[in-house]
Amino acid sequence: GLEDIATPRRTKEIIQRHGFSFKKSLGQNFLVDQNILQKIVAAAGLDETKGALEIGPGIGALTERLARSAKCVTAVEIDQRLLPILDEVMAPYDRVRVRHGDVLKLDLKEVFAEDFADVEKVSVVANLPYYVTTPILMKLLEDKLPLENIVVMIQKEVAERMAAAPASKEYGSLSIAVQYYSEPKLVCIVPHTVFIPQPNVESAVIRLRVRPEPPVQVPDEKHFFEVVQAAFAQRRKTIANNLKSRFFTKENKDALEPLLRSADIEPSRRGETLSIEEFARLSTLLLEAGY
Ligand code: SAM
Fold first, then answer.
1. Looking at this predicted complex, what is its ipTM?
2. pTM for this structure?
3. What is the mean pLDDT of the chain?
4. Is 271 annotated as ligand-binding?
């Protein structure tokens, strides 16, 4: 049989034979390391009954491994030039379906209905294009797709922000958004040397275990995330000052401190110290008071 795609030798061979040139603007850094692939696939907990959705298959380094571990794989690739290559290298794997398109524009509910009708659980597994990591992950989470895990290679700093705990310097609105929908866990830090070409940033694999229910009850999700955004608007300011600028006027600003105290939050604290539970209490009380 053929050597795996994710070796420097076979990757270079495929790329040269097809005259493929990397597009930096599409975040094209291909994996050429069996070990890292093994860790990514293991973290997803796939088996013969489950489906995998891959975003950006490239020349199929990860796709091939997914095809050996899941019941069916759908891979969405934006770069038309990769389609004939994928056609060739995926020929031995009839459980793989390649779709051409921009994942941000795709109706994922429709893809799920068409491709994953006979699997019970689906995970997203991908080495993401770094220029659109956050929009892709937020789309996957906000669309409330029936996902089990999201296991992705992303920029290390972004992974650390997603998994950050209150009061750490990485903690911010992204941490809360991700943790509202999932339980993040950093799987491993990844050196530049496992990619062709090598990216300029450090990478990490993160697993988001998608929650069946949010960890806190809020009356209005949009309002909750507005409060979170406001709290982090100026990191050096207190929660009271940040909320005042966003939700209050000169005339009614005195109403804020009693509201904060009834949510059991000291007005002099900074937003970055508030837990997701505290943000939920705060959003609820503000909304009930008409803010
Ligand atoms: N999975 C391959 C691997 O690990 O070797 C390639 C990973 S590479 C970091 C990212 C891939 O995502 C590229 O193939 C790129 O063309 C594709 N891509 C970039 N933007 C995309 C988008 N909006 N929708 C779908 N695919 C995209």
1. 0.99
2. 0.96
3. 97
4. no
